[in-house]
Protein: DUF805 domain-containing protein
Amino acid sequence: MADAGFRFLYREDRGRIDRALWWRATLPLAALVALATAGWVAVRPYAAHDLNRQPFIDGATVGAYLYLAAYAFGLILAAVCSYNVSAKRFRDRGRAGRWAAGLPLACFLTGALVWFIPQSFGDVPDWAGRVAEVALLVVVAWNVLDLGVGPTDVRNRRVLP
Structure:
């Protein structure tokens, strides 16, 4: 991955990459997102703030929300990096790079729906979140199979003399 360059892989959507480089660029992103999500799951109980039992300004609650802000910013950066890496691979597979927006969009929409269901007071049924999660799993499987397993379309490779 060092020969491809960090800027080329994660900060630009132009170019093409093969499936091995796609895996080497995608797995670290997935590991970082999983680690950050595990951190949020560990910190999330401190975000609940009950003024009857806790002071108005509670250090643990402030820390949890600071982590949440950093976590949200990190997820947006990871989504942009994932888009840039996958756009190159989609282009290498003979498809438009804009298909790479499908996975980050599905992740954000599913996350927003699952977050909103408890706040909707029953207006949005619980099964809607499960349907969105299944749809997200389908999009993830499609990306992995298409980008991580599918061969390179040789018509898209330039043969240099």
In short: Residues 59-92 form the longest helix (34 residues). DSSP finds five helices and no strands in the chain. The CA atoms of residues 1 and 21 lie 7 Å apart. The chain has a mean pLDDT of 89.
